[in-house]
Write a structure and sequence with these properties.
Number of domains: 2
Strand content: 15-25%
Shape: globular
Number of helices: 8
CATH superfamily of the largest domain: Luciferase-like domain
Largest sheet: 7 strands, parallel
Oligomer: single chain
Number of strands: 11
CATH class of the largest domain: Alpha Beta
């Protein structure tokens, strides 16, 4: 896949209304002050349309390739998020932690969205849900089976309530790989696989379970996701 931030800069220059997001950037592969600068720049370029999805990653090989220790990745992520937000909101910023330090400085430009672009945190471990509820603005997950939706939403809302957040209004965003077919696939099909009507029915079930937003991911379709094919699918699935 292409680098998401470079790609979104290209998209920002060619769009005016759609929101732009990532699902997700793995924070161990960045330093907070550099990522804060990149994301603030992107928020300026797209006039405040950015949504930031962050995660810890899962691959030890990727950690090794990035030169980052696998151990204590949770504690490192907590501090990363606090430092990231400090760079965006404190003027001047000065941060001293166990993993990251920013000497007293002014970092510009500021994001268009204040105090910062919405932060969504991904992951299913209870510690990740706690981070989403205490250090982020919402939670994001990928390809959740319909049977697991309600318990997953309940866990996220429970973490939000425990953190003193508005559990009912806490954003829950899901990424869903989809497969659009001309004919219905019928019972036993995978969620978001089937005809346009079947996929719309699945989306309604996601909403009923408490998911606040679903975005459809075309990357994993059989035969590849050509631009022409995906654009046609978007037209078919667009609200009528």
């Amino acid at each position: 896949m292409l680098d998401p931030l470079a790609t979104l800069a290209w998209v920002a220059a060619r769009t005016r209304a759609i929101r732009l997001g990532v699902s997700v950037l793995n924070v161990p592969f960045y330093t907070p002050v550099v990522l804060a600068k990149q994301l603030a720049t992107l928020d300026v370029l797209c006039a405040g349309r950015l949504v930031v999805g962050l995660g810890l990653g899962w691959s030890r090989a990727e950690y090794e390739a990035a030169g980052v220790a696998w151990e204590r990745r949770g504690a490192r992520a907590d501090e990363f998020l606090r430092c990231l937000k400090a760079v965006w909101t404190d003027d001047p910023v000065e941060f001293r932690g166990e993993f990251f330090r920013v000497p007293r400085a002014r970092v510009a430009p500021r994001p268009v969205q204040q105090p910062h672009p919405p932060l969504l945190l991904g992951g299913y471990h209870p510690a990740m849900l706690r981070r989403a509820a205490t250090l982020a603005d919402g939670w994001t997950g990928g390809n959740i089976p319909l049977a697991d939706l309600e318990p997953t939403v309940a866990r996220v809302r429970g973490a939000a309530a425990a953190a003193g957040r508005d559990a009912a209004g806490f954003p829950i965003v899901c990424r869903g790989a989809f497969q659009l077919t001309e004919a219905p696939l019928g019972p036993g099909r995978r969620a978001l696989h089937g005809s346009a009507e079947e996929i719309r029915s699945d989306l309604a079930r996601y909403a009923e379970a408490g998911v606040t937003q679903v975005f459809l991911d075309p990357n994993f379709q059989a035969g590849g996701a050509s631009l022409e094919r995906v654009l046609a699918q978007m037209e078919t699935l667009a609200p009528r």
